[in-house]
Amino acid sequence: MTTATAPEVTPGTTGERSSRARVAHLVQRQGALVILVFAAVAATVAFDSFGTQRNLTSIAVQASFLAVVALGMTFVIMGGGIDLSVGSVFALGGVLAAWGSQHGLLVALALPLAVCGAIGLVQGLVIARGGLPPFIVTLAGLLFARGLLLLITDEGSTTYKVPPGAAFREIAQGKLLGLNYTVWVVIVLFLLGGLVLHRTSYGSTTLAVGGQEDAAQLMGLPVMRSKVIAYVTSSLLAALGGIMIASYTSSGVTILGVGMELEVISAVVLGGTLLTGGAGTVLGTLVGVLLLQVIKNIINQVGSLNSNWQAVVSGVILLVVVTAQQWLARVERR
Amino acid sequence: MTTTATPPTRAEAETRRRRGLDLDWVRTNGVYVALALLFLLNVVWTNNFLTERTLLLQLIQVTPVVIVALGMALVIGTEGIDLSVGAVMALAAALIPLYVGYGAAMAILIAVLVGFVTGSLAGSMVAVVGVQPIVATLGIMVAGRGVANLLGGEIKTIREPGIVSLGSESLLGVPYVVLIAAVIAALVWFAARRTTYGRQLVAIGGNKRAAELAGLPVKRVVITTYVVAGVLAAIAGVLLAARSQASDPTKLGQLMELSAITAVVIGGTPLSGGQVRIIGTIAGALLMQLIFATLVFHNIPDSTAQMAQAVIVIAAVYVQMGRRRSTS
Amino acid sequence: MTDPTITVTEPRTATVLETAGVTKSFGGVHALRGVDFSLAEGEVHALVGENGAGKSTLIKVLTGVHRPDGGEVRYRGGRVDFAQPAAAQRAGISTIYQEVNLVPLLSVARNIYLGREPRRYGLIDVPTMERDARELVERLGVHIDVREDLGRLGLGAQQMVALARAMSVDSRVVIMDEPTSSLEAREVATLFDVSRSLRDQGVGLVFVSHRLDELWQLCDRVTVLRDGRDVHTGRMDGLTRTGLVSHMLGRDAGELARDGATEFGESHLQGREPVLSVAGIDARNTLRGVGLTVRPGEVLGLGGLLGSGRSETVKAIYGALPTQAGEVIVDGRPVHRNSVRHALRSGVALLSEDRKAEGIIPDLSVRDNIALAVLPRMSRMGIVSESRIDKLVETFMGKLRIKASSPRQLVRELSGGNQQKVLIARWLCTEPRVFLLDEPTRGIDVGAKAEVQSLIDELAEQGLAVVLISSEMDELVEGADRIVVLRDGAVEAELDGADLTSSALLAALAGDIAQADAAAQEEDR
């Protein structure tokens, strides 16, 4: 093997990526942002009422409930899982908060977080330790949370009200610098989420687990712990979303959150997170949430349109975006 | 140089297979045992359980799940998933009152055609574009439910005699809906076991790249599978509308995707694809139906029933998974 | 066959990792039956054996994946019982697997430091991490951007990153399980350099490879396993190739030496018109105007280093690799470009090099795997005829001596060699005119290897046109009637008749035609 001593060693790197591939990569990750900007600009031009501060604030507040839940889902999906229970947990959290608000602010906050956190913990343990598909486990979680909600509301017939003047109302109705507290909560949580994902070993473990679970296991990373934490976080944030909406509407509405998991998953995927896990950004998720909210808002602006158009349009957008992502990924690979 | 068999490998495989056989027995038959036990339990504990009326009612109620789950089993066999089935049911049902003026047959044909269209769309997204099944069918689910609501509006009652009789009449004591489900089950079983399509389907689910390189028509098989799932969902929607003599685009078929997936998994088909168990799927659907009915018989409130169902689903899947892990 | 440039290092006496009488069984099957193995500091220790001899089980015991049933594992003088791989790793035992076990979607730097990232104020210090990673990979002589996603690198570079990770944890023991199977020759050279420098720093290395030549290049000692026992331990330099193989097989050395290292017979070329002719194949980034012809009964060897375009060429012929230009003609009829199905119908078959990912369908039976490609032909109006399949499968299982408990046994339960035979049977069912074989003997045990080699011979004898790719030079030189050598996606040379020697092939692989001619003349003399 004397001739095998090679002149230089540059083991099979893919070499320089073409500029086309770089653009494709960018568009693939930021496609939702492009559509968001486009939609916002178009709406501002088309409807006088869209660009008003009042309307934009309303979009931000409406989006904040979804955003909080979507942040938790982002961690779950990046870790290679999925959480279908968020809609139910969201509703349960809201009902528990409204009930708890009769007994003071602390109960209104602690009770939903404790109960929903426990649901998340059980789901996480069953998924991580038992090795069950997240799909099925969180589907059962959806049923369970919904059942629990019905149980504490006399089979759905009781709607708890937040007492007038309760401090609990301030959570979503109070404002700082003209923005509702919920919007600030979202900003803080997303900054924190980004930091956790990209600058802590918990974050890298989550990405590693989502990208290649076997490898993460062999590297001795705390795979189970990262999964459990993801599901607990998801349930806690779903509960927080519920608390926020209970504060906003001053009541525990029992019928909320049906189909919310799908909206949340759409937002995360629109934001460029791979549904198979291992890659994505929390900022993308925020963009995805805003995009869905802007679309809803536009549909409301067009007075003649039935609100069912929201579902049609967001479904179609999801399909178009994933098709585009797929196509772009193909361009990038070349 | 002749080969000597490498003894440890072969012996190892041998025991693994023997152990696998025992586990396989439980795995494939666990659902039947559970079904039989629950049935016996009801015979003993539930009043008026063993009557023709009660049993027929259970069968009638389970038909939509069975029909949808059969399509789902095929899709899962390709390593896919179809979340759009519930929305497709609603969409198909919503079309019945709109086209019933052209006659029952025409309305049903159009409704079923919708399943064909959504199935083709889902299949093409998955097979041609390469979108993950869960995302493609999620989009169709959201959009499909929206379109159903747009077209259907409020709950509409259906009075057309042809459709009403489809949902309420019987042949030789067996309700039409049950008969239709039985025929569909037989056809799907035959397709999965005895046709090139069925064989190719499990091969694709087992190793797609290898199937491609073996010259299998991967795209065609995958698209066909989603079309079948869509058409079956549409048929289930039509039957449900016919039975309730109404179409409610918001409620009809809600959470059906989840019931169908549960039936398939409990019936022993792994979500990882490469296997299709038709009889197991039917038994899985029957088991879930019977569990729920048992709770209703004993006046357990809806809330508790749902929570119980959640626990049962986890337990059942856990048992399946536990066995699967030890075989691999 | 021993390499003349053996590095003679005195094995230091200190034992770093050893097993004493380790046993392990799975459901009554004894995978290890009392293995004594010892690894000294500062040595490279080869671990060899046929498939099923217990190599992988032993490695898994050493690295904490499995716990031994009996006997004990001692590490740095004390008895250890690792509960999981992470524990072994923390103690300083790193493993580099055949299939790289890293995370493709994360950057190189992240992969090296996953779980041990440098921190500042409790958060990961990315600049420091990337700087350290850069220094580390450069010490390995590899030039890659550590911020690049790992998945964008070639397999060889990924392997180096795995090694960098092992180095970064200051391992005392590095276990390399088939690390070279996907590397180019020059990457192998780098890997060996790095391994030697680790050895010189006192690290103990365990090296597993199917490529026997590599053992003499790198290893100081060898332990041979057979049927779960250690049957031989000794220095590499006292051992001949035949001696080693006879330890592995437990057979007489003289019997093995009888006819070379492979089972190929003589040429049986039938001087007819080419059945396959390929011209001007271009594929983006991989192939540039590749052309070749094969006559019936001919075995055409396709030589080249990894990345030279060998596998890409056969995939392009088979329609499984998108091409931008080119012509493939089988039996005088053109084959549609980029269509596997048309290639198959035209009588081309491809045995892919990646048996697991592109070959077997693990959860289907032997029978269904064999019949897979011919299902439409075994059916009437879309309905499968079971009896016709049974007959076909029975024929091929007998012909190829496939060892399975029954045709219904799942293919994933078979040994690598038998899986390979199942795949060959799958393709022979299609009655091909041209058979493209990409590394047909990779990763299968010595016995099955010989069987596959003589089978290839038989097929050519029956008039099939065969294209053979092999990384093993002996296999290529002895098996092929003619060799086309590829380099950087283009045909570099063609070796024929008297030129068909190992030294000429080596020279051609290195890209030096003049040297190839010289070598050929040397052989003639």
TrEMBL record, chain C:
Residues 17-252, 269-513 form the ABC transporter domain. It is a peripheral membrane protein. It is found in: Cell membrane. One of its GO terms (molecular function) is ATP hydrolysis activity. One of its GO terms (cellular component) is plasma membrane. This is Ribose ABC transport system, ATP-binding protein RbsA. Its main location: membrane. The keyword rRNA-binding does not apply. InterPro entries: AAA+_ATPase, ABC_carbohydrate_import_ATPase, ABC_transporter-like_ATP-bd, ABC_transporter-like_CS, P-loop_NTPase. SUPFAM superfamilies: P-loop containing nucleoside triphosphate hydrolases (SSF52540). The keyword Lyase does not apply. Keywords: ATP-binding, Cell membrane, Membrane, Nucleotide-binding, Repeat, Translocase, Transport.
